[in-house]
Write a structure and sequence with these properties.
single chain; about 40 residues; mainly alpha; 1 helix; about 10% strand; flat
Length: about 40
């Protein structure tokens, strides 16, 4: 996946990569939920 001209994001393979992606998505959803709660107060 390419972002911009000189930045390329390659998904990690195997078990650690899968675990990292799951962890990232969980943390991102928590952060987004907290941000939305703070904005909507």
């Amino acid at each position: 996946m390419r972002l911009g001209r000189n930045l390329e994001v390659r998904p990690l393979g195997g078990g650690p990569g899968c675990l990292a992606m799951i962890l990232f998505s969980v943390i991102a959803s928590i952060v987004l939920t907290l941000a939305l709660n703070l904005l909507l107060r």
